[in-house]
Amino acid sequence: MRAIRALLIYPPLVAAALFFAFPFYFMFVGSFMDQRELFNLYPRLLPGRWRVENYADLFHHLPFARNALNSLVVTVSSTALTLLFCSLSGFAFAKYRFPGRELLFIVVVATIMMPPQITLIPLYLLMRAFAWQNTYLAVVVPGAITGFGIFLMRQYTESVLPDELIDAASIDGASFVQIYSRIALPIVVPGLTVLGLLTFISHWNDFMWPLLMLDTNQMMTIPVALGSMVGVAAYDQTLYGPLIAGLTLTTLPLALLFLALQRFFVAGITSGALKGG
Amino acid sequence: MEQPTGGAASLRRETDTAGRPASPAKRLLRQLWRFRAAYLAILPFYISFVVFNVYPLVYTVELSFHSWKGGQDWTPVGFENYARIFEDGVFRKALVNSLYYWVGLVPLLTAMALIWATILNARRVRRRGTFRSLFFLPYITSEVIIAIIFLSLLDDNFGWVNGLLHLLGLGSIPFLFSTSMSKVSVIIVMLWRNLGYYIIIMVAGLQTIDQELYEAAAIDGATPLQTFLRIVVPLMRPMILFVGVITTRMVLGMFSVPYMLTRGGPEDSSIPLTLMLFNYAFRYTRFGDASALAMVVSLLMIAIALLQFRILHRPEGASR
Question: Is B76 helix (H, G, I), strand (E, B) or coil?
């Protein structure tokens, strides 16, 4: 019985695991292949010769180090701003009964429901009017404070921070900022971790908005830069070897970091989804 | 000097000051002043809300009723933009495609996520944590990167997937450059990237189900399938609704994967509404038409979300 059950569960699991792993394998070995090996009806699972020069070529075709720096600057500053403002607002909403609180919070929830398409065109025109196009500001500022982040942090702060702690501190004469930074912040770190991870992932991978805003090679983030290497629907115009080297260089550090921290990462999102959902 | 206070203390303080009579306006002002730090803390969000949400929203509504060629003048045109959009062949294709994606992706993602999550939450499945992480890996990878990988793997003439089909003695499939397969390819890639994330969310939901329920079912001799249908599905209804709503948003906002994979082609066979919006606004600079399109997409999104709530949101215990 047990054996039959194992037979029913593990083969599909392993097949699915292979399905998810194979494209990563292809990306890694593909980054050392030439065009003819990458596009071949008789694929070979390893390159005939490991072409390290694909990586050198990548840096010829793109200012890839600069692109990586851009991605890092944009992602880190967006995430930092999100964490600061959302934890502050979440704390205020969770623990202070100020007049208008409920109504103001409905606005927060409403922005979560708002379809992003509806603001796209005016936002684009606004960034041009601000002369922010092709600057970091255009990709960082509009998405820096999210309703989702405030919602998540309010839920989390409410569930982990006892009122008594705040009352005691305020009777001792601690100010709002002191209570936030010395009492609330250390307690909500797990919630911030989840929000930070989700924010980091979404900004690191963001494509449409940076594509619209960043138009010189020097300012592009990694996804926009790599996307710009793909010719329009004709594989023979695209330098796939160097391109796939770029994909590998971008994915490998994140994937290794993720696999090293996997338990923490997935568990964090699990608990965060619980609080948020 | 009064400090803003929290919770119970603030309530106590309020009754203290209410001891002496004050006009309501004055009391409100005092309240506002007392909580000035909290208001200051939430202020940045509302500034961002007005500048980046309210203003653009009003602008889109206005622009959708105007003709604008990029200069200074806006000419009011009533519903002309909407009429033009509805008569547009590309819009009909994009609408059908988006509904196709929705029908293809949302139920599939939700069902597969729930089934895999149930398996990966079962105590007797070994190394389930490793499998969960492996399934999640595509989600931390950029959609652009994933689309480029599949662009090579699924190439019509020389891609490895067609190589495999060739090896098995089957004919090759024109995944990307045929009107019949382009949408299917987009769905495969979207599924590959996103399934792991929704598995994790479903696992989170499953962990709120009382373990005793499973044990009771096992004692009553329920098969795993019965347990799944009678216990897991009904109790997961709120989570299924949640995933249904967020995947709907994802599918109707889909841009990067079709943009990179097919550019919406061939012959607009895989263009989704958001890519059409992007093209009309930023390639053809037809801002009026694009705004009308943005309105239609948003209303569609809201309508589908309401429908999902209507179907799935029943009071607890009402379902069997």
Answer: strand
Judged by CB atoms closer than 8 Å, whether chains meet at B153 and A121 is answered as no
- Chain A contact for B119 (CB, 8 A cutoff): yes
Q: What is the pLDDT of residue B225?
A: 84
Of all residues in chain A, what percent carry a pLDDT higher than 70? Answer: 91
Whether chain A has a CB inside 8 Å of the CB on B308: the answer is no
> Which residues, given as ranges, of chain B have pLDDT below 70?
1-21, 313-320
Asked if A40's CB is within 8 angstroms of B152's CB, the reply is no
For residue A272, what pLDDT is reported?
A: 54
Q: Does B143 touch chain A (CB under 8 A)?
A: yes
CA A119, CA B294: separation in Å to the nearest integer? Answer: 8
Predicted confidence at residue A49, as pLDDT, reads 86
CA atoms within 13 Å, Cβ hemisphere of A6: 6
Q: B268 by DSSP, 3-state: which?
A: coil
Task: Using only the alpha carbons of chain B, give its radius of gyration.
Answer: 26
Which of A155, A17, A259 has its CA nearest to residue B199?
A17
pLDDT of residue A239: 83
- Directed axis angle between helix B89-121 and helix B237-252, to 10°? 140
What b-and-e string marks burial along B149-184, b requiring 16 or more CB atoms within 10 Å of the CB?
bbbbbbbeebbbbbbeeeeeeeebbbbbbeeebbbe
Beta strand segments in B194-306, E: none
Q: Tokens 């601000």 correspond to what residue?
A: A130
Helical axes B24-34 vs B36-49, angle rounded to 10° = 80
Bridge partners (DSSP) of residue A107 are none
pLDDT number for residue B14:
46
Which amino acid would we find at residue A51?
R
Per-residue model confidence as pLDDT tens digits over A238-256: 788 889 999 999 988 888 8
Cβ separation of B207 and A270 shorter than 8 Å? yes
What are the residues whose beta carbons fall under 8 Å from the beta carbon of A75, sequence distance 6 or more?
Answer: A200, A203, A204
